[in-house]
Structures are given as C-alpha cells and as structure tokens.
Amino acid sequence: MPKLYDLTTHDTSQPYAPRGFQQATLVLCPWQKVFLILLVIGLIVWGIFDWKTEIFVINVVLTIFYLASTLYRMLIIELALQKPREIQIEPSELEHPPNGKQWPKYMVILPMYHEGDILPHLVEGLSNLDYPKDRLDIRLLIEEDDDETMGVAKSLDLKPPFVIIPIPKSYPRTKPKACNVGIEDGEADYLVIYDAEDKPDPDQLKKAAHAFARCPDNIACIQGKLGFYNPNQNLLTKCFTADYATWFGLCLPGLDCLQAPIPLGGTSNHFRLDILRKVGGWDEYNVTEDCDLGLRLFSDGYRTRVLDSSTWEQACPDLGFWIRQRSRWVKGYIQTYLVHTRQFFKLHRSLGFWNSIQFHLLIGGSFFSQLINPFYWLMTLIWLVFRPAGVDQFFPAPVFAMGAFCLFVGNFIFAYTSSIACVRRGAGHLAKIGIIMPFYWLMISIAAWKGFLQLFTNPHHWEKTKHFANE
Amino acid sequence: MSQSLDTTRQAVAPLRTPPFFWTVCVIVLAIVRAQFGGVSNVPLTLHQSIVDSILAGNDWGRQALIGNLDSPLLPTLGLLAANLVSKLLGGNPALMLCSISQAILIICFVKLACDRRKWILAALIVLVPPAIPLIRNLCLNLDPNWCSAIPAAIAICHLRDWQETGKLRDLLVVAIACGLLAFAGPGPLVLTIAFLIVLTYQKKEKVGGDWSQHRGLRTLIWMPILYCIALWFLWNSLIFNDMFFGLHELFNRSQATIKHPTMPYDFHAIIALVATYLILAMKTTHRSTARCLLPAVFVIPLTAYFSARLGLGPAGLGPFGVILFITAGTLVYLADSSTKSVMIAVRIAFLIALAVACVHGNVNSTYPIDSHEIKHFTTMPISEGQTMDAPSQEELIEFIDKYWPNSRILVCGSRLPALYPDPEEKRFVAKLFFSEEDFIRQAQEEQLHILIPPPDGRFFPTHRSTLADIHENGRDWLFLEKVFPNNWQLWRSTIPPKGESKLLRQNQ
Q1: What is the pLDDT of residues B138-153, one digit of tens each?
Q2: Residue A422 with chain B: CB contacts under 8 Å
Q3: Which residue of B236, B299, B326, B384 has the fewest CB atoms within a 10 Å radius of its CB?
C-alpha cells in the first residue's frame, strides 16, 4: 500500500526532536544534566558541612510533597465518586450510526511480537466485534523477522477486514514504532489500538463512534477502561486488579473531571486518526509511549475523555514478569517527565499553572513517590520498633502533623480506595485485598527502582509483557 | 409497597445547592450561635488542660490524648485546632468549636430537608431545637464533645441519601464518619458499632440501589472503623509501650464500679423516643434509617449508665441525644405510610417525647462520679484549683516552699492534672499513670512530692491501684508530709536527688 504519511523518517540533525517534537532519544538534555550534577554536588557539600540541617530541609520538602500528592489523589477520587464522568452510551443508541447514515470507518491496529500462540484467539475475538465489517480495517502489525507469528497469521488465511502489515526490521524495535508504521497508510475516521490478548466489549467501537460524535472536535482520544479477566488467578493478579480498578475506575474519571492531562493506558485508546497523524503518532523511543502521547495531545490543545466500556486483559500472574512490566512503566514515566520538562517554561506556558501542578504531581509525583517510599517506610518501621532518640529534631510539630496525616490517613485512604474501586468495578469479592495493598506498593517500589536504574543503563530496552496462554 | 413508595420519593429530583452556599450558612449560623455564649464545664476543663499541655510540649498531654478514657481524641483534637485558630482570629476556642459543631449539625439536617424541597422542615430544624430546654441546655454547655456530633450528623444524613439513591459515595461517607467516631470515646464507639451492625444487615435488604447487588460492601462499611480501632491500639503501643493500655484502664475501672452514679443528663426524653423510632422502623418509608438508629435509643442511656458506673465521662452522648431528637423529627416529617393511623401514631409519639424533653431539661454537664463532686465541679472553677475538698494550688506551693522550695509535686491521672494546671511543669509534674520505677528514677534527679487524693474512685481506679496502696500503706522511700482535709495526702520522696533541682535550673 502507498505510504500516505511519514511517521518514521528521522532528521538526524535534531537529536532531541528527530521527528519535529521532543522525543526520548536521549535521556537528559544538556541543562538537565548540568542541573542534576549541580544538585548532587550541592547535596554532598551541604551534607559534609551541615548534614543535620540538610536532612531536616529534605524531610520538610518531601513531607510537603507527600501531603500535596495525598491531597491531590484524594481530590481526584472524591471527584470520581461524586458523579460518573465516563461517557455513557445507552444500548438503544447503538442501533444507528451517530450521523444517521453510515458508521464511520474504523482502523484497529494490533502490534504483535512472538505471539503466534494467541493469534487465533485474537482473530476470533475481533471477529465478534459488533461493527460493520465493511467499515473496519483490522491491521495485524507483525515484525518482519517474527517468523512464528507471521507463519500462524498466514496459515489462518485471513480475509478483510484483517490485513497483515509487516514491520521492517529497524531500530528502535519497539511497539510504538510498529504502530507508527502501521498507520502510515490507509484512511479511516477513527483508530483504536489493542494488545494481542485483549478482549474488548463487542460494542466498544460503536460506543466510541457515538462518543466521538457527541464530543467537541478537540477531543482527540477516548480511553476505554481496562480490566482483567483473570483476577482470581493468584494474590498478585488480585492486587493488580485492584490497582487497575483504581486507576481506570477512579483516577482517570477524576482526572477527566478536572480536565487534567491524562496519561493514556496501554490499549483501548480510540483516536481521531487525522489528529493522531498530525501530532506525529507515538514516540518510538519512549517505553510508555501512550503516557507521552496523552500529554503531547494535551499540550497541543487536544483533550481526552473516558468511555464507559471495558477491554479485558490478562493480569500478569508471574512476579518476575510483573516487575519487568512495571519497571518499564516507571522508566517510561521518568522518560516522559524528562522529555516534557526539557522546554520547561514553554511547557508551563502551554499547560497553564494548575495543569502544570497536576502534570508534576501526576507524572513526576507518581514515580518519585514510588522511589522514595521504601526509605520512608523503613524509617517508619525503625521508629516504631526501635524508637531511636534524636529523630524528633527532624520532625517539628507542623512537619510531624503533616507526616502523621500522610502516614495514618493517606495510606489508609489509598488502601481503602482500592477496595472501593473493586466494588465499583464489580469485583467486590476483592474488596478485602485493600488491606494488603501496602505490600503490593512495596513491590511497585522495587520495580520502580529497577526501572530507574535501567533508565541509565538501557533506556530504550522494551521489557515486553509476557502474555500467558489462557488457563 | 416499599418499591412504590421509593418510586414516589424519587419522582422529585433532589435539589443540589453548591457547597459554597452551605459553607456560608454554617458560618452565619455559627456566628449567631456564638452570640448566646455558653457554660464552662468539667469536660472542657479537662480537654483544655490536655490541649495546653500538648501545646507546651509535655508528655502528659500526649499521653492523655491517647490513653485517657475521660477525654476522647476527636474532641481534644477539635479543641486543639480551635485553640490554634483562635490564636489567629481571637475569641474563645471552646465557644468557637461548639458553635461551629452545632452549626454543622443543624445545617446537615437543613440540607437534607432542602434537598427534598421541604422548606418548612428546614425552618423547623433551625427554630425548634433551641426552644426545647433539654436541647438548649446541652447546646449551651461548652463541651468539646460537640465535635463528635459532626461525623455523627454527616453519617445519618448520608445514610438517608444512600438509602434513597443507592449512590456508593454516600455509603462511603457514612463508613468514614463512623470510623472517626471510634475516636469519640467508648460510648460513641459502642453506639457506632450497634449502628453499623444494623446497617450491614440492612444493606442486604436494600431495594433500588445500584450497588446493593455488589459484593464487598460489608468490607467498605467496616474497614474505616476497624482501622481506627487498630490505630488506637498502635498509638497506645507507641506512647505507653502497651498496646492494651486503654483496655487495662477500662478493666481496672470495671473492677471497682460506682454503685449509685448520678446520670449526667435526663435520659427520660431519649427513652421516650423509643416509640417514635419503633413505629418509624416498622411501617414507614423511612424505616431503613429508623432501624439503623433504633439501637441508639437504647444504647445511649445504657452506655451513659455504665460509663457513669465506671466513673467515665459521658463523652459525646449528650450531642448524640440531640442528634437522635432532630433525626426523629426530620424522619417524622418526611415519612409516609400507606396506613394513616401509623402516621398519626408516630406523630403523637414524637410529640410526647418532645413534651418530656421540655419538662426534663436538666444537664449536669459533669462526670457522673458522685453528687458531692458534681457540686464541687459545677460550682467552682477548677482551673484555679479552688475546690471544695482538694487543697488549692497556692496552699500546696506555700507548704512545700517552706521546707522544700526546690521541689515539684507529681499529680497523676487525667483529672488531677486538670485541677492543678501547670503546662510548663514548674511546680506540678503531670503523669497520666503512676509508675514506681519512673518516680524513683525521677526522684534521683530532683526533689519530688506526690499528691494522692482519697481512694474513692474519683481520681483513680481503686482496683489494683498503686496510688490506693500508697495512700493506705505508704512506701519506704516516701514520707507523709501532710494530710489535708478530706484525706488528701502529700508525700515527699526521701530519695536524695543526685543532681540539682530542675526548678533551680529553670530559675537560673
């Protein structure tokens, strides 16, 4: 097929923005490097001369950060609970196209790599989508050298709307690069991306088409909710389910309510295809390209909404693979934060004051808190068990009050929120899992540190999520 | 029947007024309420002395905040916040706290009425309570426990909303508000548990809500209160190195109860509400709410009685009684029934309860220890230490200054330090509990006296009490310096201090 749009050619003279927008080609830009080096040197020197004041000041700053994050999170949850913000489409509306004539043309892309074993199930699942087949263009994006998946795809003798798009072998070998290649040709009104193991609600495309028709033109993306079809497999999948339910059931609707920048979730992102191409598609160097795209859309003036329709995925049941997946997410969040803060003042001008605060709390705050949490937990544990003398000097009354609020109220609210999210998601039997969520957060912090360290050793390495055969 | 009634109720869409409007209403009502002033009382003195001690950074304040059954955590924190605000804005912190708490309570119910477009009910909620002597007297009592009325009122109003709309958020607010009540003292805790037990049972029967078919609601209902109880144990452990310090205190008190305690309020009126709630719980559209509150009608007088026998204060129970009254009135106004006679009966029952409240309006506003102490507490400003039977602060200081000018006097418990307030601990050292080891250790550092009240259960439990034993038998390292009238004893430590007195150091 002819290439209508170019989303892959790089301008090598622009190492930080090879395709016209800031990308994660390099981890740090020059000023960020200088700033971090000066910060580290400054902290060391300060520590040598007056370590007590230094620890005190750091503690005050971190406590205020914790308090702000906790209050912000509570605000988001409260807004989500006040009234449903997700776009609701009644089943009766789905009987007719939104414009009354014909359904808009929909492109579905499925990046795959070594997933031949689940491809037949995927094709079967997508065949069940309740959408006119002549208005669908389902693209299986298979790496050229992935003989296994390509072999299975060819053996299935796929007919339209299924199309196999071979992805040429080139670097970086990431999912977003495959997606960019996949949308360089073809015409459609909307596009959605699914993972190979996804099971979307059959009427999701129709709902999304209606949702787009209902929304103003600046709504570039509609995010479907993600859930897991194997929540009960083991303790990890239960916690993961509660975590996802919180994010997609409470946090995203709350952010939607605040009209804040929404970091997109990996799949079930429905786009207006023309806008997606206009903003340059995904950043192939970013390992959480969806999060980056959500922010880029926002800073370009586009908005994202949440649709009340679910896509069911597989919760990773293996701790090792889960940590890898989670470490990639954290690494990607850090990449995204660093990329978007390269042009610090421009970013803040485009976002405005309140949205900038939200950006820092949401993107910067989430990975930062995951990184520092273990230290504070350890400190709390030492304080509870050994009651060491001299700790008081680092916690004057106001700081102690803020810290105690975060410790005793904040942590409970977060755990309680997990239980609430499970009930709202229809997984009320998992509500008790809220009690053990702190242990899950500990694992998140372990993964966060893995991702953080990997950012400096192997920034573009894609820790692929392993999809286990259905049991 | 219930479904048809629910449908009728939901036919009128609830009125949604912006929160800002209600905030303004609370402020205005609080200002109006503050104009009427209030009466100081024992709970206020006790809470205020704890707050003063916390602000001065003393251990006793921290200990009394957590491990003291007389002054629950929530009102103390409320008073602490009011003290901090009053430092900025001026005014009496206790009056500020009570005015705001009462205003929030009233506005919660006014909002409930306004959301349903019941304007007359809203007006009645504002105007009628001050006209009832019992409620008026309770409201004029500047008891920091009014602070506990806020979560209680919020819980009841959101319970009503949840039972009508089935919105999960309302149920969560109920659960969190009930969780906070775990910090409102033993009485409110028992009430809340009774309330939640009925609510847990009720949710199974709930009709019309979106969430009733979902599992996990029981976890959501109980999680906050269980967490708060667990926190209380944790804090006991942190402060006293004994997770069950508070429970031990309760157990010790239960071993030596007061046989004929004086009840702090007239509970006739609350007991008179039984008929109203019973009828509401059986045959009306608001039976779900009434069923949840029905146990409270029995539990409040019972809890008050047993608290009195244990020598505990009636923390929060007075405000709960007021809430029960207002809720009953609101439900009677809003309720409907397919049987006309039921509505007539419930209205008559409520009017009788109102009449009883008008006749019996006595509020003792003190701890139900015995009539002697009530007289003492209500007639004398105890913050000055001028009491009928206890030696005054000045008397004690004058005495020890004659012979031991560098000595400080140890006062133990929660009530005794309130009689001899000294946040800076210049002459009186407050301890929540008496530990011989700690006393001996401290006596090696400085010259100490210890004041021991008569062992009659008023200031410390008599069962397994070291203080009672000292009062009776003394110790080798203590010398009885003086016995004041009514058997108050002042003992002096005979352990020679190693260093100089703290008093001397402070003076220097």
Answers
A1: 888 888 999 999 999 9
A2: 216
A3: B384
pLDDT tens track for B278-287: 999 987 888 8
pLDDT tens-digit readout, A260-309: 888 888 789 999 999 999 999 999 999 999 999 999 999 899 999 999 99
The pLDDT score that the predictor gives to residue B171 is 92
**DSSP conformation class of A220:** E
The region, left, alpha or beta by phi > 0 then psi within -120 to 50, assigned to residue A26 is beta
Tell me how far apart the alpha carbons of residues A149 and B374 are, in angstroms, rounded to a whole number: 87
Angle CA B61–A400–A439, to nearest 5? 115
Q: Residues 70..99 of A with a Cβ closer than 8 Å to B: which? A: 81-82
Helix (H, G, I), strand (E, B) or coil at B68: coil
Is the CB of A416 less than 8 angstroms away from the CB of B219?
Answer: no
Find where tokens 């996990």 sit. Answer: B216
Number of domains in chain A: 1
Judged against a pLDDT cut of 60, whether residue B373 lies above it is answered with no
Judged by CB atoms closer than 8 Å, whether chains meet at A434 and B219 is answered as yes
**Distance, CA of A10 to CA of B400 (rounded, Å):** 90
Tell me the CB-side half-sphere exposure of residue B243, using CA atoms within 13 A.
6
Query: Taking Cα atoms as reference points, which of B227, B238, B140 lies closest to residue B175?
Result: B227
Q: What is the pTM of this model?
A: 0.88
A167 CA to centre of own chain: 24
Tokens 């913000």 correspond to A85
Both tokens of B284, joined, read 């009306």
Residues of B with CB under 8 A from a CB of A: 168-169, 172, 211, 214-217, 219-220, 223-224, 227, 231, 238
Asked if B76 contacts B48 with a C-beta cutoff of 8 angstroms, the reply is no
pLDDT, position A86: 86
Q: What is the mean pLDDT of residues A319-348?
A: 92
Give the gyration radius of chain B's Cα atoms. Answer: 25
What residue numbers bound the domain in which A61 lies?
Answer: 1-471
Give every CB contact of residue A146 below 8 A, 6+ residues apart in sequence: A112, A113, A114
Q: How confident is the model at residue B383 (pLDDT cuts 50, 70, 90)?
A: very low
DSSP-derived 3-state class of residue B101? helix
For residue B239, what pLDDT band results from cuts at 50, 70 and 90?
A: confident
A269's tokens: 């992102």
The 3-state DSSP composition of chain A as helix, strand, coil percent (nearest 5) reads 55, 10, 30
- Nearest-CA neighbor of B317 among B257, B248, B363? B363
Q: What is the ipTM of this complex?
A: 0.88
Q: What SS3 state is found at A284?
A: coil
Q: Are A256 and A262 in contact (CB under 8 A)?
A: yes
CB contact under 8 A, B219 and A424: no
User: Which residues of chain B are within 8 Å of residue A423 when distances are taken between CB atoms?
Assistant: 168, 211, 214-217, 219-220
Helices and strands (H and E) in chain B: how many: 24, 5
Which residue from B minimizes the CA distance to A387? B238
**Is residue B155 within 8 Å of residue B284, measured between CB atoms?**
no
